[in-house]
Design goal:
heterodimer; A: mainly alpha; B: mainly alpha; about 0% strand
C-alpha cells in the first residue's frame, strides 16, 4: 500500500505546482484569478450552512433518542454479513438522495468516530466516490424538460450501489 | 423524498426519545448538532476558497479545454450516437472535465447544456435517449481527482493525514464509473432485445 499513500500525499502538491506554472506560462493573471475563483468558495460554504444544520439536527435527534441504535441493531446481521459497519448504513441510504444531507452524515460519522478510524475513512471514500443521483436526474432532466426517464433512474441507482461496493472493497483492502 | 426522510428522522427520533425517556439527551443534541454544522461550514471555507481559486487559474489557462481534447477518443466510444463534431460532444467533455476536478458548480451548467444538445439530437422529444442515460450514469458515478469537501471535513476534525483518502477515492470512483458504464450497456442491450432502442 506504500505507493497508494505516496500518491495521496503527492497528488495535491504536484497539481498545485502544475496549475500555477501552467497558468504563468499561459500569461494568466494567476493571483487575481485565484482571488476571483476563491470568492465563489465562500459563497458555497455559506450557502450549505442551512442544509447541514437541518440534516445534522435531525440525525442528532435520531441518534440521541436511541432510534438509530435500534435500527442498526435490527439490520446488523445483514450488514455484518456483507462487511459494512452498521454505523455507515444510513449514509448509504441517503447518499443518492441528497448530497448536502449525506455531507452532514459524513461530518457526523467523522465527528463521532474520528477521521482516521475505519468508519471515518470508509465514510470519506463513499462520499467522494458517488454522486447524488436524484439531484443530477432532477436538475438535468428537469432543465431540458425530459418527462419519460426510461431506464435512467435504474441505471443511476445501480451505479450508486456499485460505487458503495467499490468503496467498501477498496477501503477494507487497504486498511 | 428528502423532505420525507428529514421529517421521518426527526419525528421517529422524538417519539423514540419520549418512549425511552431520553428527552434530555435530545434537547442537548439539537443545539450541539446545529453548532457543529456551523463549525463544519467554517472549516469548509478554507479548502473551498483555495481549491476553487486554483481551478479558476486552470480554467483561464485553458487546461480544461486541453483535457477535454485528450478525452475525445474515449468519449466517442461512450457516445456512439453523438457525432464527434456536434456541440453536444463539446459540452459532455467539458462537463466531465469539470467534474474530474471537483468543480460541481461549473459542471452543472455545462451538463444542462449537454442535455439540451442531446435533446436536439433526439429530435426534441421529451423522451430520454440512449446517450442521455449514458451521460447521467457517468455523472452519478462522479469521477473525481480531489474530493475537496471531504478533505475539508477531515482537515477540520484534525485528521493525522487528511489526504490519505485521495488515492482510495480515485480507485473507488474509477471502479464505480466502469460499473456505471457496464450497467448502462446492460440496460441498453436489454432494451434493444425487447424491441426498443
Amino acid at each position: 500500500m506504500e505507493w497508494l499513500s505516496l500518491m495521496s500525499t503527492w497528488l495535491i502538491p504536484v497539481m498545485v505546482a502544475f496549475i500555477l506554472l501552467y497558468g504563468t506560462f499561459k500569461k494568466v493573471p494567476t493571483y487575481e484569478s485565484f482571488v476571483e475563483g476563491g470568492k465563489e468558495g465562500i459563497h458555497i460554504a455559506v450557502s450549505i450552512i442551512p442544509y447541514l444544520i437541518g440534516m445534522m439536527v435531525a440525525i442528532g435527534i435520531f441518534r440521541a433518542s436511541g432510534a438509530l441504535d435500534s435500527l442498526v441493531e435490527w439490520v446488523r446481521p445483514v450488514l455484518l454479513w456483507v462487511g459494512l459497519p452498521p454505523e455507515v448504513f444510513p449514509l448509504a441510504l441517503i447518499r443518492p438522495i441528497s448530497g448536502n444531507a449525506s455531507l452532514g452524515m459524513v461530518s457526523d460519522l467523522i465527528a463521532v468516530h474520528g477521521p482516521d478510524s475505519y468508519i471515518g475513512r470508509l465514510a470519506s471514500v463513499m462520499q467522494g466516490s458517488t454522486d447524488t443521483t436524484f439531484y443530477v436526474l432532477t436538475v438535468y432532466f428537469g432543465a431540458v424538460g425530459i418527462k419519460k426517464m426510461g431506464d435512467a433512474l435504474k441505471v443511476g441507482l445501480w451505479a450508486d450501489v456499485a460505487g458503495f461496493i467499490a468503496a467498501l472493497a477498496i477501503v477494507s483492502w487497504i486498511y | 423524498m428528502v423532505n420525507l426522510i428529514w421529517v421521518g428522522l426527526t419525528i421517529i427520533g422524538l417519539i423514540f426519545a419520549g418512549i425511552n425517556g431520553k428527552m434530555d439527551e435530545v434537547n442537548e443534541a439539537i443545539f450541539k448538532s446545529a453548532g457543529e454544522a456551523v463549525t463544519i461550514c467554517i472549516g469548509l471555507v478554507s479548502v473551498l476558497v483555495f481549491w476553487l481559486g486554483l481551478m479558476k487559474i486552470a480554467e483561464e489557462a485553458g487546461l480544461l479545454r486541453q483535457l477535454a481534447r485528450l478525452f475525445k477518443p474515449f468519449a466517442k466510444r461512450l457516445f456512439p450516437d453523438v457525432p464527434s463534431e456536434h456541440p453536444a460532444m463539446g459540452y459532455i467533455l467539458s462537463n466531465m472535465t469539470a467534474n474530474l476536478f471537483g468543480l460541481g458548480n461549473a459542471a452543472t451548467p455545462l451538463g444542462i447544456k449537454a442535455m439540451e444538445e442531446l435533446k436536439r439530437l433526439n429530435g426534441g422529444k421529451t423522451e430520454v435517449s440512449r446517450s442521455m442515460i449514458t451521460f447521467l450514469a457517468i455523472n452519478t458515478s462522479s469521477i473525481t481527482l480531489i474530493p475537496t469537501t471531504v478533505l475539508a471535513i477531515r482537515f477540520s476534525y484534525h485528521s493525522a493525514s487528511p489526504a490519505e483518502i485521495v488515492a482510495p477515492t480515485i480507485l473507488a470512483t474509477a471502479c464505480s464509473a466502469m460499473a456505471a458504464i457496464a450497467i448502462d450497456r446492460f440496460f441498453y442491450l436489454r432494451r434493444k432485445r425487447n424491441g426498443g432502442k
